[in-house]
Amino acid sequence: MKIEHLHSLFLECNSVCTDTRKIKKDDMFFALKGDNFNGNTYAEQALNKGAKYVIIDEKQYKTSTQAIVVNNVLETLQELATFHRRHLNIPIIALTGSNGKTTTKELINAVLSQQYNTTATVGNLNNHIGVPLTLLSMDLNTEMGIVEMGANHLKEIEFLCQIAKPDFGYITNFGKAHLEGFGSVEGVITGKSEMYDYLIAHHKTIFVNGNDAIQLKKTNDAKRFVFGNDALADITIDFIEAQPFVACKYNNANINSKLIGDYNFGNIAAAIAIGSYFKVADDAIKNAVENYIPTNNRSQIIKKGTSNIILDAYNANPTSMQAALLNFEKQTGRKIAILGDMFELGNDTEKEHQNITDLAVSINMNPVILVGENFYQSESDSNKIFRFKTFENFKSEFDFAQLKNATLLIKGSRGMALERVLDLI
Fold first, then answer.
1. What's the pLDDT score for residue 425?
2. Of the candidates 20, 184, 275, 417, which lies 20 to 30 Å from 224 by C-alpha distance?
C-alpha cells in the first residue's frame, strides 16, 4: 500500500496506538515487534477492542479487510509520521542534549502554548518509536510542534531528524551521558551535533546558549539565534540566583521559577528565548515560566514529615549528578544525599562512580547513602558514607530515623527507581 493511501486511512482514525491495553475506538494499531513480543499476534485483539485498522507485517494474521499488511511495521510507522509531518506543514522545533531535555521541552511548550496551539512530546517518547508517535499525535489544529529527541549512540539523532525534519533546533548541553554507546564525551558531542548538521545542511535556524562555548563554536557558520549574557547574544537573559529556586532577568523583569538548581537556568533561558523569537508577549513568557511546576521525579520539591526532599530520581549521569550535588551544597541546615547507580557508562563506570563518591565526601552533608552495585564498589574511608549493594539491602538495613529533620537529595538513574525512598520516610 502506498503511503499516501495509508495516510488517508490514518486520517479516518482518532489516534495511533501500539499497545492493545490502551486501544480506544477507531484507533490505528501498529503491530510492533520487540525482543519478547510480536505485535502481529495482537492484531485481532486490537480489532475486537475497537481499532479501525491494524498494520501488520505477517500475512497469517490478516483476518479482516481492516488488517493492512506492510513489509515492516516499524518502518511504515516512521514513514507515515514523516508524510504526516509534511502534510501538516507546521514549524517543528527539535531538541536534544545530555541533560535537561524533558524539562526544557516542557518549559518551551508552556511558553509557546501561551500564544499557539502546540503539540509536544509526551513524557520521554523521544526515540525511533516515540518521535513518530509524537508527530502522528499532531492534527490540523496544531500550529507548532515540539519534538524531543534522545540518543545513546551515533547516527541516532541524524535518523530522528530525517523522520521529523525540524525547522528549528536546540541542544541543551553536552555531558557524560550514555558513554557506553557514544564511547566518550567527544562521541557525545559528535552524536548530539548531528542535529546541528541537519539544520545547517537544510538552512534552518538553531537556538544557541551563548554561555556555552561548544555550542557557539559548533554553530559559528549557522543560521542561529543566540541567547544569554554573551556579547554575541541576540537577546540578553541574566541569571539572578537559585536559593533554592532559579530566578533570572529578561527585558528588565525578574522571572521567578519553581525550579531548583543553577543548572536549570539554561533550560529556562532557552524557553524564554524561543518564546521571544516566536513573538510571545513578555508577560505571557513570565507567566508560563513562573507557573511551571516540575513533575515526574524531576527536581521536585516535596515535604514529608520533618524532611524536605529534592526528588531528582528520573535519571542520572556524571554531569547531572555533579551539578545536583554542587547545587545541593548551597542548601542550608542538615543535608543528606541518597544517590543511586548511574547506568550506560561503559568503561568509565568505575571511574565516574568513584568521582561522584569523592565529590559527595567533600561536601558538607552527613550521611551520604550510596545505593547500587557500582557505588558499592567505590572506595572511601569517610565515616559518613553508607553503601548498599541493592535497594532491598538499603530498605532492610538502614535506620530511616536518621532522615528526619533534614533536607534530602534523592538522585539516581531510572533503573534504580529511587523514588521508592519516599515510601520509607
1. 86
2. 184
